[in-house]
Design a protein that fits this description.
Layout lengths: L1 H50 L4 H26 L4 H18 L1 H16 L7 E4 L2 E8 L3 E5 L5 E5 H5 L3 E3 L5 E3 L2 E5 L5 H13 L11 E7 L4 E6 L1 E3 L3 H19 L18
Antiparallel strand pairs: 1-2, 1-5, 2-3, 3-4, 6-10, 7-9, 8-9
Helix pairs in contact: 1-2, 6-7
Length: 275
């Protein structure tokens, strides 16, 4: 009887070892081979992103997130080979992911917007833009925020979801801008002479681009003045220096030519009522 019990025990142990040793070996093989494959995938992904000159911070974040997800799948597959019920494990992970996603909803929205900005490039570092509620020169583009520097050297940090939720105006994208000026003269001045003087000022300014040709024309017959539109094209870097220089030059040249820049005027008519 004792010999039979020992034989049964030995047989049971042998069966368990043969069964579970194979499962353990299979699970270990799945884990190590899977981890090796994950490493190859990550190298390929990082290389592809770097060749496309994707922002380094986005490369690191994307590769880290992808690595964690793939490694989690490998671990779940290895546990399943051991006979562990992975359905409940996956459900727990899904619930945890949903809870984290809801808690980080704003951050995830900023992240998604940051990815879109980096991929589609509506603006780049150094561009002058109006985005969301901010306006200035783009100093840095991060995964969650965009940093602008205003013309008076203030720093504005805008969440990427805010920057992409409305209209984005990029003043630097085309490399050139039209400079819009208004020169007002009195009704008594010769408009042909005014146009000739304005044209001469533009012709002698080397920073003004020859194409497209500048526009000079009578834009409005106002209450107190004839308003001429002066619209040359300039490089983006020359916009503000030329904006100030041209206005000063127009004023000085008008004084030299005897062209009047009128003040606002009103004609007042008085009527005497008879007693």
């Amino acid at each position: 009887m004792g010999d039979i019990d020992i034989d049964q025990i030995l047989q049971t142990i042998t069966e368990l070892l043969s069964t579970y040793s194979l499962r353990v070996l299979a699970a270990l093989a799945i884990f190590f081979i899977g981890r090796y494959c994950v490493g190859l995938i990550m190298k390929a992904l990082r290389s592809a992103l770097e060749k496309r000159k994707v922002e380094p911070s986005l490369v690191g974040f994307s590769c880290g997130l992808t690595h964690a997800l793939l490694l989690t799948l490998v671990v779940i597959a290895a546990l399943g080979q051991l006979g562990v019920q992975t359905a409940s494990f996956v459900a727990i992970l899904g619930a945890a992911g949903l809870a984290v996603g809801l808690a980080l909803q704003g951050s995830l929205s900023n992240f998604a917007s940051g990815v879109l900005i980096i991929i589609f490039k509506p603006y780049r570092v150094g561009d002058y833009v109006v985005a969301g509620s901010g306006e200035g020169i783009v100093e840095e583009i991060h995964i969650f925020t965009t940093t602008l520097v205003t013309l008076d050297n203030r720093t504005q940090i805008i969440p990427n979801s805010v920057a992409t939720s409305g209209l984005i105006e990029n003043y630097s994208a085309k490399g050139t801008r039209r400079l819009d000026l208004v020169a007002g003269v009195s009704y008594g001045d010769d408009i042909l002479k005014v146009k000739a003087v304005l044209q001469d000022i533009l012709d002698n300014e080397p920073r003004i681009l020859p194409e497209p040709k500048p526009t000079i024309g009578l834009m409005e017959m106002g209450d107190s003045s004839l308003n001429f539109a002066v619209r040359p094209w300039v490089k983006v870097a020359d916009y503000w220096p030329l904006f100030f220089d041209l206005q000063e030059r127009i004023r000085i040249r008008f004084d030299e030519e005897g062209i009047t820049i009128p003040f606002p005027q009103r004609d007042v008519h008085l009527f005497r009522e008879e007693d």
